[in-house]
Amino acid sequence: MSTVLKLTPQKVGRPKGGKDVAAQTQDGTVGKALALLDEVAAYGRPVRFAELLSDSDLPKATLYRLLQTLVSQRMLSLDPDTGFYTMGSRLIRLAHAAWQTATLAPVARPHLDQLSSQLQQTVHLAQLDHGQVLYIDKRNAARPIAMFSDAGKIGPAYCTGVGKAILAFVPADVLDAALKQQSWFRHTEHTHTSAESLRADLKDIRATGISFDREEHEPQIICVAVPILDDLGRPLGAISVTSSTLRHSLDDLAGFAPALKETAEAIARDASAYTIPGASPSGITGA
Amino acid sequence: MSTVLKLTPQKVGRPKGGKDVAAQTQDGTVGKALALLDEVAAYGRPVRFAELLSDSDLPKATLYRLLQTLVSQRMLSLDPDTGFYTMGSRLIRLAHAAWQTATLAPVARPHLDQLSSQLQQTVHLAQLDHGQVLYIDKRNAARPIAMFSDAGKIGPAYCTGVGKAILAFVPADVLDAALKQQSWFRHTEHTHTSAESLRADLKDIRATGISFDREEHEPQIICVAVPILDDLGRPLGAISVTSSTLRHSLDDLAGFAPALKETAEAIARDASAYTIPGASPSGITGA
DNA sequence: AACTAAGTTTCAAATAGTGGAACCTGTGGG
DNA sequence: CCCACAGGTTCCACTATTTGAAACTTAGTT
């Protein structure tokens, strides 16, 4: 079973007797329901009512009713025999719509195919979402196709090629906000562990238009990435080629940069063509 | 732009002055919010407030507040410049969790890889969801044939190989319910257009364990499918090999059946191993 | 049978959602 | 230049919905 990432997905504020402190849970019932959905998602496995009850601070009856509602709406599903809750099918349908209409994926897809088979390398497409990298699509040269497996996955922005490629071109206010949201966890000895260190890197990236992951996230794993910039120079996302030190040097990867840039431009061009002029082409961006 | 499929995906019941007929919108605010989400998803493109207002029967202010909530929750995203709503990024993250924990995909993945490269054909994995086929994964061998399909996509159950493979092994009550939900639209001259006709076909499928799509959904497109059955004989999903009449005959496809069956059994075996004994392995099933 | 953990239902109190109407824009006429 | 108007946004009194302590069922123990 994959490492269960139980990291309190949304810090559901909780001053029990603490009066009305401020905007905590927010957004009424809908907000609570969605927070609960995140909660269930965070388990990464079927969950019992009691588990949710102890982790959440909702009173029993409230939690119960909320779960009922979510199940009835098929956002969750409840195994009647065992009482385990899992994520519901409606999410997958909705996500399909989201993926199709609010991401670069449909536009980028043919270009990624082309690039992947041209370079014979693994290619990623990612966008920035709340200071984190959201992987939208992936093309694996050898073993083709993957969907939500990799699409939908999130990763850190401060220590991935795509993350840095996007951050380098994001407006100052968005960058500031994003930097505050990074964990600065030292994944490897090459990881940037402070905003200053990263900013220096971003400056280079801005100059060259090329971002490298020098084993900053995982040992042995390296990557080149370039941003996808719209006609106003705003980053819509980024694409990357990932490899390992066993197969390529950073210089080798640098050799892929021209092809990446070309592809990124092609995607940007298509994206603007698909969009109502003036509208930002993607729903998913910074903030 | 890809064909906009505007087919009122959920028949949002609508008795305007009709008093309180019965369980319509249901589930309070959460239900309404989710219905709205579906509404937006159905457009398949960015939507304006006014469009939603005229299609929905919510009063202006209510709709407005709901949208605000959903945007604030990142289930929708609103382009501040243009006022267009699109699906939000949170859906993609949630769907990833759903896909990972509530579908057969993670378990089936290696087996599909294996099958796809062994047969050098396009392989699909699907599950039944509310009388419809929900495509969970797809593996496309070498050259992609001209066909659109992706994880998260939904399709009819009564005229697809995977749909019929599952229906053939579903308990009587689920089958009855599912049959009522079919549109019986005559996609091609081979499409089953009535429950009787389909039932006869299902009987054969039950006998042989093999389901064929004989150009029933799209002209030229044919497919063999087999169900994935758990140890109690309940269908967890189905896998299929799809091709076109230009490349294969139905007899050719029949030749793939043994490999398909073997793979389906392997998936079922793994699925039961991954699950708490007694729990149904997948959240997504009939009903 | 007595106890306990886990899940379900009740019900008065209170919060949160409703929606008609007024109020802001920015745009396009006249 | 001023008015009309469509597309959005905000108000606010009215109510339906949500809330959660507590009582109540089941299963599973000891």
How does this model look, in words?
The structure is a homodimer of 287-residue chains. Chain A is 41% helix and 18% strand. By secondary structure, chain A is of the alpha+beta class. Chain A folds into 2 domains: 28-87, Arc Repressor Mutant, subunit A; 94-274, Beta-Lactamase (2-Layer Sandwich). Chain A has a 6-stranded antiparallel β-sheet, sandwiched between helices. In chain A, strands 1-3-2 form a 3-stranded antiparallel β-sheet. In chain A, helix 5 (105-119) packs antiparallel against helix 10 (257-274). Chain A is globular. At the A-B interface, helix 1, helix 3, strand 3 and helix 4 of A face helix 1, helix 3, strand 3, helix 4 and helix 5 of B.
